[in-house]
Design brief:
By secondary structure, the protein is mainly β. The protein contains 7 helices and 55 strands. The N terminus is likely disordered. Pfam families: CarbopepD_reg_2, Plug, TonB_dep_Rec_b-barrel.
Length: 993
């Protein structure tokens, strides 16, 4: 009995003890290419026995010889090792699946590892966070070589976008936009919430397949799509508050009076009165789903965005539909996209910010004994400093006048893809875009600012502008894939493209109204300008049907899954060019080799070198430039010819060579691109020999520029654990553009009135870099209120007038004629973006720093209002650290050109994803986030915004949407009409039902 009981007790003990004896203790270290990996899961395959590596990557586990250990870790390939002995050391390889990521390129897609051009894809998880009202802002600072600046940050202004600097002088210098295959689509007709990814084609070999429209680069936008079998309802909402981030340093009322300014008895903070804490609301609802092989996504977006300037901002409604289906025995796939946007804008008046800086800070807001705002006072009850040039009450500007507009855009497109065989497909695309703009300004009869209230002859002004644009696109192309051997894969693409665009616009300006009882849209018939000849201004334009027809072909080859080659050719014709040169040919090729395939690099996933070359063209922005142009005579009874025809007008051409290196090893990835480009045959109006061309003016090809630059992108996973990850990435770019030849040497960038009308500061000259700021050098001393300048040419006299002869050797005797010198440049030496992404369990933190270095700005507020000019005693004074009370004569010099290097915390976002119970019937995911934009800026620049001014609209803004065209050859001037930057805090919520 006892023996049986003993056996029953001993047997399981022996078996348990025997198992410990049988299972040996296995130890080891798990690493990657960068060192030990903490937090790696180690499991005995087929059992529940497991452990996790410690901080130094070490582990210990009980396993027998012959057992299989499974090592798994997020972001790495799972590895299995058969136990043989008591020590197992493992090096995990980075999951290189990202190399097989599909990237959309021109007329098709390819994998990331097969790309032979400079192409960057940015996904939704990498986009900038916070209140984003324009899709271009999603990419700001994220792509090396892509410069995006909305100086001041007005909600109604589009950002200036430059890819690798200036690509053209006389044409459109912004990249071509392609949205879901629709070439030339409008970024303004897509809501940022609907974008899934954006791919930037940076070099000529990538963009050449788009011909003339890809000369300034290409941005391909892919929108979010639905998935069949999964119905989802998503809501994204946010509320944001923005305040002015930085002000121009001027004097308070007390400081102004103490400095000898005209004291009118009040103390007024004008900037506070014309700005506000702006509140914006964004709501996005999207429904997606489908069944079988049909999917759809419908989204609706509402935006109510206020600007920090009173009466500025917009309200926008956008809706978008995407649907896909497959029919005809799965051979025909149909994709349909449609989008509609309606935006109602209050443009406000940037001039209110300008006059808030310079208006007398001791002036009252209202006139004496004027009950605001209703009274018979000729200025609406507002105080005005009559008799002063360029001096207007900023509160009166904001409250008395209106500057509103609306924009309606509708786009639809359908793509048909038919699989003839497994290796042959045909694609057809048709799309149309419609856009209508209507903008109107009204200046009350009591408004001194543009309303003419001080004139006994003309009071009030109304200006109306409307424009209709229509664009059609039809494309047909086919693909053939061939695999001649196991190592060689070939793909050929060929097709036809047809585009047509038209527009018509109308402008009307009239004034002198009897009163303000009617709104400007109805009051034009009351304009008393009708009885005064020459007062009403009318203008209209209508384009002929402008067409582009193209034939294109491309060949792609992959050998040994490591050598990649592509070549393309586009033959394109346009009606915008002369009869003798309507057609152009644009070739490109690219070659890439993954050296990792043939050289034994340790722990390297990719080491690819690539070389690309491509030619693209550029068309003029205007119509009919190759034809003779006419204008009416003063009596409107006949016409005068103003330019001669040019039947030989041809394309601008850009040829670009790009060399790149791509490297992936474990946690580190890097891309380096070096490029050079040459642009020739600018399309410009030039003075010609009147003996040959009677008008003396003709649009011709002339001028060349070259750009050399480099781009570097680095990304490293600093921490990569199951519950904790930290990634940091840097993009860095630099370029220099030189105007190799041009038809004249000139100074551009007239600073304007008062007193600087003859002062131009930006040099445009053959052989010089674009964006050079020139002027006299102040030697640091003052005589009788005037700055003393340096004798640059050493001839014993000072000649500092802004004359072109002062810059060049006009007499070609080796001696410059004057004493002007280079004071700075408007284009940065390099631009930087630095991103940080941290996740911990349900928390995520994103921070992004952005900077630009090496550029300068002409601080126009300082030029005009920092000198203590006695005749300007009724204007406020700028009071920066550079102000010298001894200077009483306003003269441009090196004193007013400031280095504008900056680093700013562009945006930071903290988010939390709530754990939603599996049995919750309604909510699948819930996320709350708090974001801040433009939180702080580190800079020595004393102006309101140190960001580069890449273009210039001239010295007078002329009223919002009626402003002059921007000049790309005149960067570097910080104008007085610029909007002021804001700091924004955003609370957001994302719910998935």
């Amino acid at each position: 009995m006892k023996n049986k009981l003993l056996k029953k007790l001993l047997l399981p003990m022996v078996m348990l003890f025997g198992s410990f004896i049988y299972a040996q203790s296995v130890t080891g270290t798990v690493s990657d290419a960068s060192g030990p990996l903490p937090g790696v899961n180690v499991l005995v395959k087929g059992t529940s026995v497991g452990t996790v590596t410690d901080f130094d990557g070490n582990f210990q586990i009980n396993a027998n010889d012959g057992d299989t250990l499974v090592f798994s870790y997020i972001g790495y390939l799972t590895q299995e090792v058969v136990v043989s002995g008591t020590t197992v050391n493992v090096t995990l390889a980075e999951d290189a699946a990202q190399l097989d990521e599909v990237v959309v390129v021109g007329y098709g897609s390819t994998t990331k590892k097969e790309i032979t051009s400079a192409v960057t894809k940015v996904g939704e998880e990498e986009f900038n966070r916070g209140t984003i009202n324009n899709p271009s802002e999603l990419l700001q600072g994220k792509v090396a070589g892509l410069s995006i600046y909305n100086k001041g940050g007005s909600p109604n202004e589009d950002a200036v976008i430059r890819l690798r600097g200036i690509s053209t002088v006389g044409s459109n210098s912004s990249p071509l936009i392609v949205i879901d295959g629709i070439i030339g689509a409008s970024l303004n007709n897509i809501d940022p919430s609907d974008i899934d990814s954006m791919t930037v084609l940076k070099d000529g070999s990538a963009a050449a397949i788009y011909g003339s429209r890809g000369s300034s680069g290409v941005i391909i936008v892919t929108t979010k799509r639905g998935r069949a079998g999964t119905t989802s309802v998503d809501y994204n909402g946010s509320v944001a508050i923005a305040s002015i981030a930085n002000q121009v340093e001027n004097m308070s009322g007390d400081e102004f009076a103490a400095a000898g300014g005209t004291d009118l008895g009040s103390r007024t903070d004008w900037m506070d009165l014309v700005t506000r804490d702006a509140v914006s609301n964004i709501h996005n609802v999207a429904i997606s789903g489908g069944y079988d092989q049909t999917s759809f996504r419908v989204s609706t977006n509402f935006r109510d965005a206020q600007g920090i300037l009173e009466n500025s901002g917009f309200k926008q409604f956008n809706t978008r539909l995407q649907a896909s289906t497959v029919i005809l025995d799965d051979k025909l796939k149909i994709d349909f996209n449609a989008s509609y946007t309606k935006r109602d804008s209050e443009f406000g008046f940037n001039e209110a910010l300008r006059y808030a800086v310079l208006y007398n800070p001791t002036a009252p807001v209202l006139g004496v004994d004027s009950p605001y705002p209703y009274n018979p006072d000729p200025y609406g009850g507002y105080f005005e400093t009559l008799g002063l040039f360029d001096s207007f009450n900023p509160v009166s500007i904001v409250n008395q006048n209106t500057n509103n507009g609306s924009r309606n855009e509708f786009t639809y497109g359908a793509n048909f893809k038919y699989s003839v065989t497994q290796n042959i497909t045909l694609n057809g695309t048709y799309s149309e875009q419609f856009k209508k703009l209507t903008n109107g300004e009204y200046y009350r009869t009591t408004s001194l600012f543009r309303g003419g209230a001080s004139s006994p002859f003309r009071k009030g002004l109304a200006r109306l502008y409307t424009r209709d644009d229509r664009f059609k696109l039809f494309e047909l192309y086919g693909d053939i894939s061939i695999d001649p051997s196991e190592k060689l894969n070939l793909k050929f693409t060929g097709g036809y493209s047809w585009q047509e665009e038209t527009f018509n616009d109308y402008f009307l300006s009239a004034g002198d109204f009897p009163n303000d009882d009617l709104a400007y849209l109805d009051a034009l018939e009351w304009s008393q300008d009708q009885i005064n000849a020459g007062q009403i201004s009318i203008n209209s334009n209508r384009s002929p049907e402008q067409r582009i027809i193209a034939f294109f072909a491309r060949a792609n080859a992959t050998f040994d899954d490591a050598i990649y080659f592509n070549a393309s050719l586009r033959r394109e014709g346009s009606t915008k060019l002369g009869e003798n040169n309507k057609w152009g040919t644009f070739p490109a090729f690219g070659l890439g080799v993954d050296l990792n395939k043939y050289v034994d690099f340790n722990n390297v996933d990719l080491f690819k070198v690539r070389l690309g070359y491509g030619v693209t063209g550029s068309l003029p922005s205007d119509y009919g430039l190759a034809n003779a142009r006419f204008s009416p005579t003063a009596d409107l009874l006949s016409t005068n010819q103003v330019t001669d025809a040019n039947p030989d007008l041809k394309w601008e051409q850009k040829a670009e060579t790009n060399f790149g290196i791509e490297f992936n090893a474990g946690r580190l990835s890097a891309t380096l691109d070096l490029y050079t480009r040459q642009v020739k045959d600018f399309i410009l109006q030039r003075a010609v020999d009147v003996a040959v061309y009677p008008t003396g003016q003709r649009v011709e090809n002339g001028g060349d520029l070259s750009t050399n630059g480099f781009e570097l992108a680095l990304n490293y996973d600093i921490i990569k654990k199951e519950d904790l990850t930290y990634n940091s990435g840097i993009v860095l770019s630099s370029y220099k553009t030189t105007l190799d030849s041009f038809d004249a040497t000139t100074l551009r960038g007239n600073l304007g009135a008062p007193g600087q009308n003859d002062t131009a500061v930006i040099l445009v000259a053959p052989g010089e870099a674009i964006g050079e700021i020139w002027g006299p050098i102040w030697d640091g001393t003052v005589t009788n209120g005037s700055q003393n300048f340096v004798d640059v040419n050493g001839d014993g006299t000072i000649q500092a007038e802004q004359l072109i002869g002062n810059i060049i050797d006009a007499n070609e005797d080796g001696v410059r004629d004057g004493d002007l010198a280079k004071l700075g440049k408007g284009i940065p030496d390099f631009e930087l973006g630095w991103s940080h992404t941290l996740t911990y369990k349900n928390w995520d933190v994103n921070a992004f720093f952005r900077g630009a270095f090496g550029h300068s700005l002409v601080n126009n507020f300082r030029v005009f209002y920092e000198p203590r000019v006695g005749s300007q005693g009724s204007y406020n004074l700028i009071n920066t650290k550079y102000a010298d009370p001894a200077i009483t004569n306003a003269k441009f010099s090196s004193l007013y050109v400031e280095k504008a290097d900056f680093v700013k915390l562009d945006n930071i976002s903290v988010g939390y994803n709530f754990d939603i119970s599996d049995d919750n019937k309604y909510i699948k995911n819930l996320r709350v986030s708090l974001s801040a934009q433009n939180l702080f800026t580190i800079t020595g620049y004393t102006g309101a915004d140190p960001e580069p001014a890449l273009t210039d609209r001239g010295s007078v803004d002329n009223g919002g949407f009626l402003g002059f065209n921007a000049d790309p050859l005149t960067p570097g001037i910080d104008r007085r009409y610029n909007y002021f930057a804001s700091r924004t805090i955003t609370l957001g919520v994302n719910v998935n039902f």
